[in-house]
Design a protein that fits this description.
Blueprint (H helix, E strand, L loop, with lengths): L2 E2 L5 E7 L6 E9 L5 E4 L5 E8 L2 E5 L2 E5 L4 E4 L5 E5 L6 E8 L3 H8 L7 E2 L5 H13 L4 H17 L10 H16 L6 H8 L3 H12 L3 H19 L4 H7 L5 H12 L11 H19 L1
Antiparallel strand pairs: 1-2, 2-3, 3-10, 4-9, 5-8, 5-10, 6-7, 6-9, 8-11
Helix pairs in contact: 1-3, 2-3, 4-6, 7-10
Length: about 290
């Protein structure tokens, strides 16, 4: 059952990570008192706020932004951020803590980035806010919530002020790499072959992918393989050797060694674990890797 945080109008910790690309960790609302302020430094997660009514300010990377009704503002990971409600017209907002390898790409496509952290749709603001409220009303339904988040992102992209500008080709490259890995993870995957298929230099593609997602290509491939492996172990239908082969490892020993290095447990220790424990192990492994790289 999702946990609840006091001190807000509504807040739930849900930790939905079944999707391969889009994770939802926390959601809530707050109708702020005048000059209510908050300072964030969040690791490994992105926070987006949908301002329903009122106004406030956002301070990020040495700049201050004025934010008003029907705008969305971004709190990037690993970035100290301050925001404060207006004295005379304090804001009311909905927030979501989100993550996943495709999230920076999706938000960038909508024009929402650390260097441009405030978004205002050219149309359909009411639809975006309605979808956000729909998620709050159905927060116990994991797949419903993640589906609605995808809908929100689609509306944001389609109604972005940047929609008419030239599409960033680099985003398309990164999307193609992610799709390739998710389709081919069970086969031998060589970074040189991915780069060649896109007509790019390996080092250039590696840098492009790291800047867009926060993962190196090898890290994303390994992380995706481990995520699929622990799901297979939780289902308890395949042998460890069959799982090793299914996620692209040529022998069981190499797979078991990589698995234990990733999760801190051997595959046999994880056989038959329930889904919530598997998700918790995935989240913990991600947090450990992020702290090691920071």
């Amino acid at each position: 059952m999702p946990q609840e945080l006091r001190g807000c109008d509504f807040c739930k910790f849900v930790n939905y990570e079944d999707s391969d690309d889009f994770y939802l960790y926390e959601l809530g609302t707050n109708k702020c008192e005048p000059l209510y302020s908050y300072e964030h430094l969040v690791k490994n997660r992105i926070i987006i706020h949908f301002v329903v009514n009122g106004r406030g300010i956002l301070r990020l990377n040495g700049r201050q932004y004025n934010v008003g009704p029907h705008q969305v503002f971004l709190i990037p990971p690993d970035t100290r951020t301050f925001y404060q409600a207006d004295r005379d017209d304090p804001w009311e907002y909905i927030w979501f803590h989100i993550g996943g390898p495709k999230i920076p790409l999706i938000l960038k496509e909508a024009g929402l980035t650390p260097s441009n952290p405030v978004y205002e749709p050219v149309a359909c603001a009411d639809k975006i806010e309605s979808l956000a409220h729909d998620i709050l009303d159905n927060y116990t339904r994991q797949y419903y919530c993640v589906g609605k988040l995808y809908e929100i992102c689609d509306y944001m992209i389609e109604n972005s002020p940047l929609k008419q500008e030239e599409y960033d080709t680099s985003l398309l490259y990164v999307k193609n790499v992610i799709s390739y890995i998710q389709l081919k993870y069970s086969e031998p995957v060589k970074i040189e072959n991915i780069a060649f298929s896109l007509g790019l230099n390996r080092s250039y593609l590696t840098r492009l992918f790291k800047e867009a997602t926060g993962y190196s290509l090898q890290e994303y491939l390994m992380t995706y393989r481990m995520k699929m492996a622990i799901k297979m172990l939780s289902e308890d239908r395949m042998s460890v050797s069959d799982i090793a082969s299914a996620v692209g490892y040529g022998d069981t020993f190499t797979f078991s060694k990589a698995f234990k290095r990733h999760f801190g447990r051997s595959p046999s220790e994880c056989r038959g674990i329930d889904n919530s424990m598997a998700l918790g192990m995935i989240a913990q492994a991600r947090a450990v890797r992020a702290s090691e790289s920071s």
